[in-house]
């Protein structure tokens, strides 16, 4: 009996989800044009900034951190607004944005690996 | 026990063999509640493409970090002499702005598509395709210039030999993506212009009726190509 009621409420919950899904299925991504124009403008500004980093000739950590900053801001704006990720459900956002973390782990591994290779080469070529 | 293993608790005979595999995997389950299968599949394709470009940039990083020969200075390699003045990265700056402009026109095309303004949507898509073709054209010019100066996948006049291989691999793969995007854009723009999505005309390849969502899915691909360029611009040209 207890099992039956659990099953029953589970079924109701599923039905509720199903009807919510039906309502959301019709909603498509439509946003004011002004938003796109503002983001477009910012992309131009950020691109100009990252080009200026090279044009002015900044070097060292300041250069690298500015390049990364402008890159992340641009990528974020494109994914969030132009690709509408900001309005997607969290299940979708996680499914797409979390797996690339594996690439970052791979980057960390290869930084150690290439440091080791470089040291070995320097050692070998120095005689 | 049977109730816990099936979704519905019905004791109907389930199909076996290949039919059984298809029936089990296509049960009434859906992870992405308000996203159509077309959009979900495009996102998953883009995710796999992220790994491909991620690995290209990663191997470039490994080559550049582990070489004992100085890396050619991209600021000078990709510079142009205009009227006797050398401007660093001029071609690359032009390509960046062309691609960002095309991303903007694409976003507007998606918007007008959903507003059922097929004339504006199709024109904006054609404009996006034209900007994409311009990008590929400038890239072809850049490749020609570098090849004439002696850059090869196995060597170049300025430094580390891996420079050529990384450059041709990364920008070549990206340029191919842009080229296919232009073709994809022209096909969808023709459908929008003809009103296929209003009258429910069936597609020539899938025989399915399309919707204006196809424009948004096309847009996802195009914005991704722009997104990849953001990373290439930062890591290959500016670093």
Written description of the protein model:
- The complex is a heterodimer of chains A (127) and B (239).
- Chain A is built from 5 helices and no strands.
- With 127 residues, chain A is mostly helical.
- In chain A, helix 2 packs antiparallel against helix 3.
- Chain B has a single domain, classed as Cytochrome c oxidase, subunit III, four-helix bundle (Four Helix Bundle (Hemerythrin (Met), subunit A)).
- Chain B is built from 9 helices and 2 strands, in the order ααααββααααα.
- The longest helix of chain B is centred in the last third of the chain and has 33 residues.
- Chain B is flat and about 75 Å long.
- At the A-B interface, helix 1, helix 2, helix 3, helix 4 and helix 5 of A face helix 3, helix 5 and helix 9 of B.
Number of helices of chain A: 5
Using only C-alpha atoms, the radius of gyration of chain B works out to 23 Å
Our Rg estimate of chain A from Cα atoms comes to: 25 Å
Q: Indicate the CATH architecture of chain B.
A: Up-down Bundle
* pLDDT < 50 stretches of chain B: 1-8
Question: Average pLDDT of chain A, to the nearest integer?
Answer: 81
- Name the structural class of chain A: mainly alpha
| N/C terminus separation of chain B | 60 Å
Helix content of chain A: over 70%
Give the biggest beta sheet of chain B.
Answer: 2 strands, antiparallel
Mass-distribution shape of chain B: flat
User: Using DSSP, what is the number of strands of chain A?
Assistant: 0
Number of domains of chain A: 2
Taken as a percent bin, the fraction of beta residues of chain B is under 5%
Helix/strand order of chain B, N-terminal first: HHHHEEHHHHH
